[in-house]
Design brief:
Number of strands: 7
Shape: globular
CATH topology: Glycerol-3-phosphate (1)-acyltransferase
Number of domains: 1
Order of helices and strands: HEEHEHEHEEHE
Structural class: alpha/beta
Strand order of the largest sheet: 3-4-2-5-6-1-7
Strand content: 15-25%
Distance between the termini: 58 Å
Length: about 230
């Protein structure tokens, strides 16, 4: 696919997501922190994975703030409702995906990864990471990591709320750490932010946490109730 074709698809999909898909399914999407990283270094975004919506919500936030290119590693099976049918992931496909991510990071790009590797319950503790994230950072030791957490809430509206927290980027000399040390360190960092994220929401009445800037807010009428025939 040529670059103009990619840009055209990106624009159309962004418009479809904003005007239809997310408007239809969410009452509110909010963001704390900033998507953009000012360091100019390659950046690996790591995000918890508890819903089919995670990648789309992240993509929406990117489109609202950052005009740069981001690469999201999303399982094709989870996107089968929106994308043309593709072959099921195999070990060879996974290896190719990791090699592509390594190449992008070496080029100074921004890559997104769900280190859990699959959808897991939002409140599962401890978080369970696959070792792919460790392989990436060992191969790209100058990469900075930016933690992103997402929480979903059913409140006083018929549609759910989603909030994203973009944490501060950090980096270590990844080349001096073992695969297990990197994986464990990132797991603890993301889990801590996820718990702090939940605590912020719990410290406010449902739907009133002003820490998160609205990216999408449906002002539906409170009078639109179901009418029962009695």
């Amino acid at each position: 696919m040529t670059q103009p074709a990619i840009q055209s698809f990106d624009q159309r999909f962004a418009r479809y997501s904003r005007k239809y898909l997310l408007q239809r399914h969410f009452h509110f999407i909010g963001q704390m922190g900033t998507v953009y990283s000012h360091s100019g270094r390659s950046t690996l975004y790591i995000m918890n994975h508890s819903s089919w919506w995670d990648g789309l919500v992240a993509y929406f936030a990117i489109q609202q703030e950052d005009s740069g290119v981001h690469y999201l590693m999303i399982n094709h099976e989870q996107m089968s409702n929106l994308l043309p049918p593709q072959e099921k992931d195999s070990s060879q496909t996974l290896s190719t995906t990791l090699q592509s991510a390594i190449q992008l990071l070496h080029q100074g790009e921004r890559v997104w990864l769900f280190p859990q590797g699959e959808i897991q319950h939002l409140d599962q503790r401890p978080l369970s990471f696959q070792t792919d994230v460790g392989h990436l950072l060992q191969k790209c030791p100058h990469t900075q990591v930016k933690p992103v957490t997402v929480q979903y809430l059913m409140g006083t509206k018929m549609k759910p709320e989603a909030t994203l927290w973009f944490g501060e980027p950090f980096s270590l000399d990844w080349s001096t750490l073992s695969l297990e040390e990197i994986t464990r360190y990132l797991q603890v960092r993301l889990e801590k932010q996820l718990d702090d994220h939940k605590a912020r929401l719990l410290s406010h009445p449902v739907g009133s946490c002003s820490d998160f800037v609205p990216l999408l807010k449906n002002e539906g009428s409170r009078k639109k109730w179901f009418r029962f025939p009695f």
